[in-house]
């Protein structure tokens, strides 16, 4: 058990400048519908902390969840799925980019990949961009429950290979089945020095 289980919603903003300071934070990024909000909930062992949906484009704002005083977990909008008015669509990537490049307290970005879909072109671009900005990130393959058990090892290597990282350096989780989530919980708690 970690303090992540005490996490509670604190605020929603559309501009990182309105966030204020904190001691440490981690954030989830990835394609729309990859399961960022679901993984956030699962890692905190809570069902309805962040809003989830079967329809891509559910999270459209920067949402803050506090686990202990000044220790935040951030749910971000997804990328790669355009819905809504053009003006709103255009603000998504910028909102994410501005957030990621302007938070000195950001300890780790968890970049989610759909284990079944594999890394998309946008996922690879995001990884390269994070590297170019020296933003610490870790790749998490989610929805691994969709991969039959005998194929999982090969799939894991394949996804890591496509991203140019070692399979051991990538987390392998499911937000809906109990796979990999407790390890991730401890890792996040450590990043936040909880
Ligand atoms: N089978 C399976 N489904 C999952 C898993 N994680 C999330 N889902 C489903 O995927 C859909 C999208 O989940 P969300 O958590 O809303 O995804 P998101 O990345 O936050 O999406 P946006 O907010 O739109 O960017 C929901 O129907 C979830 O139930 C998983 O590990 N396995
Ligand atoms: Mg979401």
Strand content: 15-25%
**Overall CATH architecture:** 3-Layer(aba) Sandwich
Task: Name the helicity range.
Answer: 25-40%
| CATH superfamily label | P-loop containing nucleotide triphosphate hydrolases
Bound compounds, please?
Answer: guanosine-5'-triphosphate, magnesium ion
What is the CA-atom radius of gyration, in angstroms?
16 Å
Shape descriptor reads: globular
Q: Quick one: biggest sheet?
A: 7 strands, mixed
CATH topology: Rossmann fold
Q: CATH first level: which class?
A: Alpha Beta
Secondary structure: number of strands: 7
Mean pLDDT: 93
Strand order of the largest sheet: 1-3-4-2-5-6-7
Order of helices and strands: EEHEEHEHEHEH
- So how many helices? 5
Tally of discrete structural domains: 1
Distance from N terminus to C terminus (CA atoms, Å) equals 11 Å
User: Which regions have little confidence, pLDDT < 50, spanning 5+ residues?
Assistant: none
The secondary-structure class comes to: alpha/beta
Structure explained in plain terms:
A 7-stranded mixed sheet has the order 1-3-4-2-5-6-7, sandwiched between helices. The chain has one domain (3-191): P-loop containing nucleotide triphosphate hydrolases (Rossmann fold). It is globular, with a radius of gyration of 16 Å. By secondary structure, it is of the alpha/beta class. The protein is built from 5 helices and 7 strands. The model has no long low-confidence stretch (mean pLDDT 93). The protein binds guanosine-5'-triphosphate and magnesium ion. Magnesium ion binds next to helix 1.
